[in-house]
């Protein structure tokens, strides 16, 4: 029913300003444009939130002496599988928990450095990056 369709369209535009919420021809254009914008905004919202989470995690990890890439990679090596949203929430609402995660990442990083330096524990015939001069 066309009357119901027009009524529905004008109902969607009650909050619009000017003639757009009264004239059907302008209303149709405005609704179409609004739906397209809302579709694009849903995509952009995901990008925006991810960058926001990364910024928050980066700021919190710098407080504990770790850069963001090192923090994330060492958490992954430690098999901590928390996503960025949860990490950002922990950084804001649970700073002690985040501090312990940062300490875990720092410890993992130190272990990696020690393994790279080589303590003379390499098996026979394995070359490390560090050359020992006798």
Automatic annotation (TrEMBL):
Coiled coil: none
GO cellular component assignments: ribonucleoprotein complex; ribosome
InterPro entries tied to this protein: Ribosomal_bL20 (IPR005813), Ribosomal_protein_bL20_C (IPR035566)
GO biological process, one term: translation
This protein's UniProt keywords: Ribonucleoprotein, Ribosomal protein
Gene Ontology MF: a single term: structural constituent of ribosome
Gene3D superfamilies from the UniProt entry: 6.10.160.10, Ribosomal protein L20
Domain of life: Eukaryota
Family assignment from sequence similarity: Belongs to the bacterial ribosomal protein bL20 family.
Protein name: Large ribosomal subunit protein bL20m
Species of origin: Sclerurus mexicanus
